[in-house]
Amino acid sequence: MTEQIVLEINNLSKYYGKLLAVNNVNITVKTGTVYGFLGPNGAGKTTTIRIILSILKPSSGEVKLFGIPVDRSNVQIHDRIGYIPGDVALYGHLTVKQMLDYFASLRSNRPSSRMEEMVKLFDLDVTKNTKTLSRGNRQKVAIVQAFMHDPDFYIFDEPSSGLDPLMQQVLYDLITEEVENGKTFFISSHYLGEIQKIANLVSIIREGEIISTMDVSKLDQQVVQKVHIDFKSEVNPSLLQDPNITVLSQDKNELILIVKGDFHTFLEKISRFPIERFYAPEPSLEDYFMHFYDLKNRSGGK
Questions:
Q1: 49 closest CA partner among 189, 171, 146
Q2: Distances 143 to 104, 140, 161 between C-alpha atoms, Å
Q3: What CATH number belongs to 5-220?
């Protein structure tokens, strides 16, 4: 398969009045990639996606899809895209089946040949009225409509929002299968673990600016883990001295640490101390940013 550029964003900026929501963003997404767009809420992810889809106009810069500058009137380009919005809004007077049929009618040039397959895969009751649906089931409707016309490029804004863990895994498996069939994904999320599971490349955005773009394997090396430890006796923090360990706080026998890099090496280091309780929550994006900016400040960066 020839590797082609599916999405190209050059020097993209967007103002809302005097507020700079997106600042000089540059992104290139190639065929067969799952490209993660990672950042906290309010970072500029949804604004960027809405510009890609021609829902919003940029203040400056350019966006190309399949090598063509984006334009709301270019129906053929939009027929090749499957989109899941961050906030799913449905017509409350329609059943799920009527809603999906309506979505299908908007893509007259691209038959919705996979509707039944996707409905079954996500265990969606199409006889229900959309106004009675739970948040998770509304998300399933959005997922089914994104996949059912077999698009070439998927743009997802927080796609697993509202899904239970089982349905999340069904979605992740489907994404993997689609990539094996040559499809391409651009996925916005504020969940670090989600991007680590499904993406190849990731751009990290904060306050409208991309602060880093890297292979996800390198992200794994940079992710920080917060750890709470209750030792059976008081431990001198200097005994844990390591460039990859930062002591956030200590209260007698209790330490809260930030660990970067190989977690197994850290576990070996602390195993020589008697431990009463050990707790390591899933790494969060907030911890990553705190550590990223702490390192930047220490090095004199701005």
A1: 189
A2: 13, 5, 11
A3: 3.40.50.300
Cβ neighbours of 53 (radius 10 Å) = 19
* CA-wise closest residue to 291 among 186, 187, 189, 192: 192
Report, as an integer, the average pLDDT of 77-104: 93
Supply the mean pLDDT for the chain.
88
User: Could you tell me which residues come within 8 angstroms of residue 294 by beta carbon, excluding any fewer than 6 positions away?
Assistant: 246
Q: Where are the domains of the chain?
A: 5-220, 224-282
Specify the pLDDT at position 220: 66
C-alpha to C-alpha distance for 32 and 177, rounded to whole angstroms: 11
pLDDT of residue 196: 87
Q: Give dist(CA 278, CA 228) in Å, integer.
A: 6
Band (291; pLDDT cuts 50, 70, 90): low
Sign of the four-CA dihedral 94, 135, 112, 146: positive
With residue 263 as reference, give the H or E element that holds it.
helix 263-270
10 - beta bridge partners?
62
Overall CATH class of domain 224-282:
alpha beta
